[in-house]
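Meet our chain:
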Amino acid sequence: MKNYQKKSAFLILFGLFLNFYTIHSQTNNDINVYNWFDKTVGKDNLDLNNGVPHINPYRSIGDSHLYLINKYEIGKIDYDGQKYYEVKLKYDIYRDILVLNPYGESENIGINLNQSKVEAFSILDKNFVKIDTKSQTVPEFVPGYYEESKVTDDFTFYIKHHKDIQKTVSENGILYSFKENNSFFIDLKNNIYLIRGKSDIIKLFPDQKKQINGFYLMNRELQKSDLNQFMKNLMKYISNSLSIQTK
């Protein structure tokens, strides 16, 4: 990332730490790495309000994991009023935590970015924004990170990525599995709406009922295989239909 060499404070801000997988949060390895971390960065410079060591305490079953994708991806971020490009990011969607892999470090090292200073970030061609305020009319629309798709100036589609956790007790101890359970919202003319299904969309766009039903009929396979992409495509389709209708 070009900005790293210019901003020595960036390394101090984000720090270094080992991200390892264990069901125990305070083993001897944890303590050793904490000591290494404090010594490397300098205890006087370590500001945990700006970033804490990232630990995944869940030993998961098979390929199950708590992340959007279980590896670091190159992205960009707006953080504390500055833009950073070509950074390695990983998004823990179970706990709503954005994780940074510091420049030049092993991907076993990560720190949790301070959510209060994260304004927006992009990974995997997805744009995320931080929502600070809670909706008074839609209690499900809580503060946190949301994938944002700007459809028109007064029409924005949001996905709240999340995974539910399930605990399993086996001979090998306690194991966990994670299942995607996202929520969808529409911001239409500065009003937030929770989208549970097709009927909620038709209520918002009653004149597009025929087109919406047709879209569902023609895209059943995508709806089953990738609901997130299906919903984003549907929002664009509705917008295009509205544009044609108003001409």
